[in-house]
Amino acid sequence: MNELTRETIVLNMGPHHPSTHGVLRLMVELEGEVIIHTEPVIGYLHTGFEKEMETRTYHQNIVFPPRIEYLATMIEEHAYVLAVEKLLGIRAPRRAEVIRVLLAELSRIASHLIWLGTSAVDVNVTSLLMYCFNDRERIMDILEMVSGQRMMHGYMRIGGLQWDLPDGFVERVRGVIDDVPHQLDEYERLLTDNLIWRGRTEGVAVLTREDALRYGCTGPIGRGSGVSYDVRKAFPYGGYEEYDFDVPLGVAGDAYARYLVRLEEMRQSCRIIRQALDRLEPGPILVDDRKVALPPRRELVRSMEAVIHQFKLVSEGLHPPVGEVYSAVESPRGEKGYFIVSDGSNRPARVRVRAPSFHNLQALPVMIFRNTVADVVVAIASIDIVLGDVDR
Amino acid sequence: MIEAFLGLADGEVRFRDELTLLIPRERIEEALTRAQERGFILLTDLTAVDRHPQEPRFEVVYLLTSLAPPARLRLTVRLPGAEPLVPSAVAVFPAANWLEREVFDMFGIRFPGHPDLKRILMPDDWEGHPLRKDFPLVEEPVEFVGHVPKPPSAIIPKTPPRQA
User: Fold this and answer.
1) In chain B, which residues have their Cβ closer than 8 Å to the Cβ of A86?
2) Rounded-to-integer distance, Cα A138 and Cα A144, Å
3) CA-to-CA distance for A262 and A212, rounded, in angstroms?
């Protein structure tokens, strides 16, 4: 290197930049075109969800999780209700658990499809975006059919679900999961052996297994680097121990490995959904505990006790025992956990959201060290961050 | 597993099959290093709890995960409200860097030894630490006539714990 290029320049990217998938600012120090130092600046989407959740009852808080992380909404709700159920020491009925797993896996496919479409756009494969959104929209339609809303469902309840599945649900889901693997084959034909795609992703944003562990990376980032950790397998929750599925692992730890891991995860999700559909048997969808779940409508007209329970639950909420629990699920971005501290009152004393995007983003400076500026975009896309999840 | 922490922990709490060890703050680095040597290689989370007005007021919570065999361990350090200081864990777990910045930002707990302890989520010129219990949560005044701002906490009032 000659003397002229010794000087470094600092390049500011963001907070508004199309490739950041939200509002993320990066201060990148460059030596020529090579990155020698990166400092992410976050907090632009900080909304104080954790503080808000301390001021509301456990039931009211169900609205927040899908707003924190808005791409895999059912998984977020699942994470929160499981944590409160652990605190209460209850378990949802079997049918509710099967439905939750089913909807969570549909959400995972929807989230990975958005990732696939948008990250392809980031390397200028523009045709894929609308195909992916089209497939995702079919899943959104199913979620809307179930809960009444495309995204902020509020469908899960502490101890079960809001209501049972609508007619025609099973056929719709079967239709989608029969098509998704074929669609994925088609997208793979567009990308997997595409020279440009491989050139832009192979060997780019490499994270070694050691670094992934040092920075607490989970999900496809960790697994792309060979960290064999999936919450569904390591700490099974909500009935996942009964399902038969594989966890794909990468070796290279680059953006291409993460791409392959996510594609395989979508196929495995279809496998889980098929098993869940076979397990869907009639039964209750909400626990029978009147201190936790609202009594059914038909009881209200006959039983004074039911009316009192209903009134107490609506006007005060439930009172869990004093204690603290941590409960985690596998979100499309990694380990999503809720740490809830209860002081015995009707509101949580503290709700901590363990956000996978926050941890994964912390490893970004390591990933793009000595890469070029153009690769920053690929690196950010390959992490699949949701800035709402980073900033909460 | 507990034997490894004998002499380090002040006590233990078990609740819903979860183990929490209470570690005095001057031993926390040693405890984290020992846990790491025993397979707890992932620092899954580092956060804090404000017990205001109780004393000791703050708790810093370290959640560690072992991959093979899968296991979790929680370490808790109790801190007095007057002097919320705890040694930084960045040297043991680099993942603690942003997490400690977040705890500093939200609770005002300081981590001596941290390479760059500054705010991470709130603006640099923000005053106060939002997740402290004495930090008020109020509605911003609006221009509408006849609107009386009501803090969200007044929608369903807080009720004390039930006697079992």
Assistant:
1) 16
2) 10
3) 17
Confidence of residue B4 (pLDDT cuts 50, 70, 90): low
Which pLDDT tens digit goes with each residue over B96-153?
999 999 999 999 999 999 998 889 999 888 888 999 888 887 766 677 777 776 666 6
Q: Is B164 a domain residue?
A: no
Query: Which of B45, B106, B161 minimises the CB distance to A337?
Result: B45
A213/B63 touch (CB, cutoff 8 Å), yes or no: no
A268, A272, A273, A277: CA torsion to nearest 10: 150
CATH number of the domain within which B66 lies: 3.30.460.80
3-state SS, one letter per residue, for A340-362: EEECCCCCEEEEEEECHHHHHHH
- Fold for domain A49-287+327-391? Cytochrome-c3 Hydrogenase; chain B (1.10.645)
pLDDT score recorded for residue B38? 86
Instruction: Test A362 with B97 for CB contact under 8 angstroms.
Output: yes
Rounded-to-integer distance, Cα B73 and Cα B34, Å: 12
B49/A86 touch (CB, cutoff 8 Å), yes or no = no
B-interface mutation test, from A62, A214, A230, A351, most B Cβ less than 10 A away = A214
Mean pLDDT of chain A: 89
pLDDT tops 70 at residue B50: yes
Closest residue to B98, CB basis, from A325, A362, A392? A362
The domain tally of chain B equals 1
Band (pLDDT 50/70/90 cuts) for residue A295 is: confident
Q: Which of residues 204-233 of A touch B (CB under 8 A)?
A: 213-216, 218, 227-229
The residue-averaged pLDDT of B55-78 equals 90
Report CA-CA distances (Å) from A362 to A151, A218, A371, B138: 28, 12, 17, 32
**Is-contact A362 A196, C-beta < 8 A?**
no
Residue B84 located in a structural domain: yes
Q: Is B151 on the interface with A (CB under 8 A)?
A: yes
- Of the residues B12, B13, B14, B16, the best mutation for testing chain A's interface (the one with the most A CB atoms within 10 Å of its CB) is B16
Cβ <8 Å between B44 and A335 = yes
Range of the domain at B107: 2-134
On whether the CB atoms of residues A346 and A316 are closer than 8 A, the answer is yes
Q: Dump pLDDT digits (tens) for A36-78.
A: 889 999 888 888 899 888 888 898 899 999 999 888 899 999 9
> Bigger pLDDT: A294 or B155?
A294
- What would the two tokens of residue A364 be? 């970004």
Residue A11 half-sphere exposure, CB side, CA atoms within 13 Å?
18
Q: Is residue B142 part of a domain?
A: no
The interface predicted TM-score of the complex, written ipTM, equals 0.88
> Whole-number mean pLDDT of chain B?
85
Q: Where are the domains of chain A?
A: 3-41, 49-287+327-391, 290-318
- Chain A, 352-371: which have a CB under 8 Å from a chain B CB? 352, 354, 358-359, 362
Question: Which residues 72-111 of A are in CB contact (within 8 Å) with B?
Answer: 86-87, 89
Residue B162: inside a domain, yes or no? no
